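agent> step 3/5: call structure_predict on target 'GNAT family acetyltransferase' (Martelella endophytica).
agent> reason: downstream docking stage needs a structural representation; sequence fetched in step 2, passing through unchanged.
tool.input:
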Amino acid sequence: MSGVVVRTAVAADRAAWEPLWQAYLLFYGRKDLPADVTEMTWSRIIDPVSNVFTRLAVVDGKVRGFATCILHPRTWAIEPACYLEDLYVDEATRGKGLGRALIDDLIAMGRRDGWTNLYWHTETTNATARRLYDRYDKADGFVRYRLPLKG
Ligand SMILES: CC(C)(COP(=O)(O)OP(=O)(O)OC[C@H]1O[C@@H](n2cnc3c(N)ncnc32)[C@H](O)[C@@H]1OP(=O)(O)O)[C@@H](O)C(=O)NCCC(=O)NCCS
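tool.output (status=ok):
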């Protein structure tokens, strides 16, 4: 798709980001996510001191997708790693290369800034996402254990 710009989200993007974020929550069956969590996430995204950041895919001036990441220190390296926590492209613009553009952008950022790696998880059943991810590399075979500790 031509005319795609990928850039960092800023405070003025809130209104454009929110419907995509809500659609992403719906995709994961998490419409019940409390509003204060969304507020905190957004405030972290736009806080230049926070390790959370969002890159937006913008087509003809409209925000069509986002990648939200956490840059974190590592024990096995001096340089940080980047965890891609949330990736979403508007349903109407899927299959046109925006997901790929968002990942390519993170790879370019990481190479420029010296991250050791970019990584993410997905459900084994998310065939659409995995079709995109498999273009980059094979899944590494790690299995996630996740213990709920709250409530
Ligand atoms: C996963 C997701 C971000 C991919 O975004 P996208 O912009 O559609 O992806 P792209 O167009 O860059 O590429 C996807 C790849 O799969 C194919 N593809 C993806 N969706 C497609 C569709 N609806 N129709 C046809 N092909 C599709 C593309 O052809 C491309 O492969 P190729 O270029 O090597 O042939 C998007 O489907 C999405 O937001 N899904 C819901 C949320 C989600 O699953 N997020 C990831 C959680 S880990």
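agent> step 4/5: record observation. The mean pLDDT is 97.
agent> proceeding.
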